[in-house]
Amino acid sequence: MQLTLWTYEGPPHVGAMRIATAMRDVHYVLHAPQGDTYADLLFTMIERANKRPPVTYTTFQARDLGGDTAQLFKDAARDAYARFKPQALLVGSSCTAELIQDDPGGLTQALNLPVPVIPLELPAYQKKENWGAAETFYQLVRHLAVKPPQPRVKGDKPRCNILGPTALGFRHRDDVREILQLLELIGVTVNVTAPLDASPADLARLANADFNVVLYPEVAQTAASWMTRNLGLPATKTIPIGATATREFIREVAALASIDPDVAAAEAQSRSPWYAKSVDSNYLTGKRVFVFGDATHAIAAARVAAREFGFKVVGLGTYSREFARDVREAAALYGVEPLISDDYLEVEGAIAAAGPELVLGTQMERHIAKRLGLPCAVISAPIHVQDFPARYSPQMGFEGANVLFDTWVHPLMMGLEEHLIGMFRGDFEFHEDAAPSHLGGPANKASTAPALIEVPTQHNEESPAAAIPAAWAPDAEKELRKIPFFVRGKARRNTEAYALSMSVPVITVETLYDAKAHFSR
């Protein structure tokens, strides 16, 4: 067992909470000790939900372990149904209560409640949150979806289901809105969106569609595969993150729906492709980026970074071990070693070793990048309250591509501004103590100019590496600081590589410019 401060995923019953909280008319009775009752904290503080999560706890204590904890659970289940009147009841145990082996499913069946009771077997010591969400959604679909006696008669407009969005998901609410608009624009009607805002009655009519749109495979892939086998509903495989992937998604949906959509009209509001080709973005070409997150967002982000923004992917990884094969295949496209790990310290070490100029990751990587002095944008759960903005901010579709451009590029643009501020900090007119120019001042400002202020050293770029091939002379270090910090790391690496190849023991100013000439050929 490893003691850790951070974790990328909670236990599987947290995934079950995300499904229950996302839906309507569903209640989750959780056999859990006092201390495991933190659902309110997750959903009302982090996601800022306007209602309490539909979760009832048994909250047994240490003194109850010598008595009848099974009766405690039956009482809690009976009271939850009487109070909330759900259309379906989920029952299960937290990781601690799992050790008691009270069988919540069997205990609830014995109550003969007049609603479907869906037992959740979530092995807390083998699986984690995303698996728990996927298993919960699968069990709901398996128990509630009704296969019609006759094949569905297709109407004038093709129908689909949207699968995967949950509570506490990264921009799921806005992604659903964007994809709903996109599907409507190309002529596809949405039958059911689940689990977000769906009820058990909605799940019962999932078969009244022609195909499924899977937005988040970590949650929906198991259920979608079951529906393909048992309800005859094919499912999409393309995740519409980025302008290129969105166009491919439209083509895939059109093939499943047997329609000919107007792609040009659908992407009329897409500005990111033009921005990515504009003069302002030219200096971003070749920026080194490290990507880490859940498999869906990490793979998509790497593709957008490499193919649409012209970045160089120097690292790609995920904590989603169930999708490790997909990430390994994606990493091979960029010639990098995949990182499959849920140890944030291992991730931090990989980021430091790769020396990227931008990090795309979770809130963990945001903290890591801050310590390393690197710009960072969050692309995946786990996330914090600031990643649930009040504004409309999807990640998917053409508007999502615009959001990605702003979110990823602006940290680099701000880096340029910070460099310019630092470059002019010693100027007699622009230093910190200078009066505003529009207020006037002494006629001869040069005579009152303060002493030059040394630009602070960027610790992440200036700290020596563990194995430097050559020492840096003081004048060379001073000259290196004149290079903008967002390319200074690359200049340092190239110079050290050149010095190593030429067997130069000490890097001087001449060596720095020789290296620049060498790599400019």
Automatic annotation (TrEMBL):
Q: Which cofactor does it need?
A: [4Fe-4S] cluster
Q: Where does substrate bind?
A: 415-416
InterPro entries linked to this entry: ChlB/BchB/BchZ, LI-POR_suB-like_C, Nase/OxRdtase_comp1, P-CP_red_C, Protochl_reductB, Protochlorophyllide_Rdtase
Q: Which reaction does it catalyse?
A: chlorophyllide a + oxidized 2[4Fe-4S]-[ferredoxin] + 2 ADP + 2 phosphate = protochlorophyllide a + reduced 2[4Fe-4S]-[ferredoxin] + 2 ATP + 2 H2O
Instruction: State a single Pfam family of this protein.
Output: Oxidored_nitro
Q: Which pathway is this protein engaged in?
A: Porphyrin-containing compound metabolism; bacteriochlorophyll biosynthesis (light-independent)
Nitrogenase/oxidoreductase component domain mapped to chain residues: 12-412
Please, which domain of life does this record's source organism belong to? Bacteria
Q: Which GO terms describe its molecular function?
A: oxidoreductase activity
**What are the Light-independent protochlorophyllide reductase subunit B-like C-terminal domain coordinates in residue numbering?**
472-516
Residue numbers binding [4Fe-4S] cluster: 36
Q: Where is the active site?
A: 280
Task: Kindly state which keywords UniProt assigns to this record, in alphabetical order.
Answer: 4Fe-4S, ATP-binding, Bacteriochlorophyll biosynthesis, Chlorophyll biosynthesis, Iron, Iron-sulfur, Metal-binding, Nucleotide-binding, Oxidoreductase, Photosynthesis
E.C. no? 1.3.7.7
The task this protein performs is described as: Component of the dark-operative protochlorophyllide reductase (DPOR) that uses Mg-ATP and reduced ferredoxin to reduce ring D of protochlorophyllide (Pchlide) to form chlorophyllide a (Chlide). This reaction is light-independent. The NB-protein (BchN-BchB) is the catalytic component of the complex.
Q: Which family does it belong to?
A: Belongs to the ChlB/BchB/BchZ family.
| Subunit and interaction comment | Protochlorophyllide reductase is composed of three subunits; BchL, BchN and BchB. Forms a heterotetramer of two BchB and two BchN subunits.
Q: Which NCBIfam families match?
A: DPOR_BchB
Q: What is this protein called?
A: Light-independent protochlorophyllide reductase subunit B
